[in-house]
């Protein structure tokens, strides 16, 4: 509707100029061309474009060894018996753990109970009905097993830089036992690592 209102006055002015040109001796064609070369008015504003990018608090837990695929590993090695305390941690393993988070993100690392938890401690299963008790800790001297309760047994962390992997060391212990020696074999468990914001 606005475009029509603008064009009508221009045509009317050209017609008036043509009437006067018959007496003044001007070229009607030149008058018409001058009118046609006028620049059009800018278009009417119709709306806006909103542009947005959201940076979220997020973390990635992965294997620190880029040549390996899959889970990190806590390996207690090979033993002939369980009569002595066995200790190890993920920093001494080839498949260590690292975590990468958004800068300034405060979070807690929680460890699940594993596949064979008996209500008292974690266990590794041998596939023959035999189990070996063990547990996981946040430090070498910690006596409270690493768990999922944010208020008492998880690890609190705050990242200082973006995209900078931080090593995550998990300490493991197999307590000394006077019980009968477990059947020979490989004993395993899988524990979920969770990030709690």
Mind explaining what this structure looks like?
The protein is of the alpha+beta class. It has 2 domains: 2-36, no CATH class; 59-196, Fimbrial-type adhesion domain (Immunoglobulin-like, Sandwich). It contains 2 helices and 10 strands; from the N terminus they run ααββββββββββ. The chain has helices at residues 2-24, 28-36, and strands at residues 59-63, 86-89, 97-101, 106-111, 122-125, 131-137, 155-158, 166-168, 171-174, 193-196. It has a 4-stranded antiparallel sheet, with no helix packed on it. Strands 1-3-8 form a 3-stranded antiparallel sheet, with no helix packed on it. Strand 5 and strand 6 (131-137) form a beta hairpin. Helix 1 packs antiparallel against helix 2. The radius of gyration is 38 Å and the shape is elongated. It starts with a helix and ends with a strand.
Named at the architecture level, the CATH assignment of the largest domain is Sandwich
What is the number of E strands? 10
Name the helicity range.
10-25%
The multimeric state of the shown protein is single chain
| CATH homology group of the largest domain | Fimbrial-type adhesion domain
- Largest β sheet strand count, sense and barrel closure: 4 strands, antiparallel
Strand order of the largest sheet: 2-9-6-5
Strand percent estimate: 15-25%
Shape estimate: elongated
In CATH, the topology of the largest domain is named Immunoglobulin-like
Span between N and C termini? 56 Å
Question: For the record, what CATH class of the largest domain applies?
Answer: Mainly Beta
Radius of gyration: 38 Å
Structural class based on helices, strands and sheet pairing? alpha+beta
Q: How many domain units?
A: 2
| Low-pLDDT ranges | 1-24
Which sequence of SSEs, written as H and E, runs from N to C? Answer: HHEEEEEEEEEE
Question: DSSP helix count?
Answer: 2
Mean pLDDT: 78
């Amino acid at each position: 509707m606005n475009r029509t209102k603008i064009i009508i006055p221009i045509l009317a002015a050209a017609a008036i100029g043509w009437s006067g040109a018959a007496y003044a001796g001007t070229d009607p064609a030149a008058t018409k061309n001058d009118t046609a070369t006028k620049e059009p008015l800018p278009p009417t504003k119709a709306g806006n474009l909103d542009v947005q990018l959201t940076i979220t608090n997020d973390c990635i837990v992965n294997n620190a060894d880029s040549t390996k695929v899959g889970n990190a590993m806590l390996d207690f090695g090979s033993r002939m018996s369980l009569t002595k305390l066995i200790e190890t941690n993920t920093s001494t393993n080839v498949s260590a753990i690292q975590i990468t988070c958004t800068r300034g993100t405060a979070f807690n690392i929680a460890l699940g109970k594993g596949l064979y938890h008996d209500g008292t401690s974690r266990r590794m299963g041998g596939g023959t009905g035999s189990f070996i008790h063990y547990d996981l800790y946040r430090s070498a001297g910690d006596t409270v097993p690493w768990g999922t309760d944010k208020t008492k047994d998880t690890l609190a962390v705050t990242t200082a830089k973006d995209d900078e992997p931080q090593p995550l060391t998990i300490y493991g212990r197999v307590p000394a036992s006077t019980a009968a020696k477990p059947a020979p074999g490989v004993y395993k468990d899988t524990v979920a690592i969770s990030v709690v914001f």
